[in-house]
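Hi V.,

Quick status before I head out on leave. The structure for the redesign project is tokenized and pasted below; the design run finished overnight.
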């Protein structure tokens, strides 16, 4: 069953290019990732959306994703509320809106 994960980030002023570069050129080519998209949701805020074949694929890539995060962690602001520098959620597809 297809699964998606979403990770929200707030980037420090002046660090946007370094943040985006950390995901370019295959640096976010984690094992099992079917498709990944980075969107901007406002000034200095971004959201990474990943598509995975199933929960095992996402779980299997976790160490690689953390290693990528560690390479740019210092570019991120704390999100507050005890979240730290990322706000991650994931779950299976329950409804396809358009093929």
């Amino acid at each position: 069953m297809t699964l998606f994960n979403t990770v929200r980030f707030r980037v420090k002023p002046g660090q946007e290019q370094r943040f985006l570069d950390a995901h370019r050129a295959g640096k976010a080519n984690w094992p099992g990732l079917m498709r990944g998209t980075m969107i901007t949701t406002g000034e200095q805020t971004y959201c990474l959306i990943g598509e995975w074949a199933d929960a095992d694929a996402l779980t299997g890539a976790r160490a690689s994703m953390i290693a990528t995060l560690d390479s740019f962690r210092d570019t991120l602001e704390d999100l507050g509320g005890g979240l730290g520098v990322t706000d991650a959620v994931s779950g299976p597809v329950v409804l396809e809106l358009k093929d």
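Above is the designed sequence. The longest helix spans residues 55-72.

G. will cover questions while I'm gone.

Best,
W.
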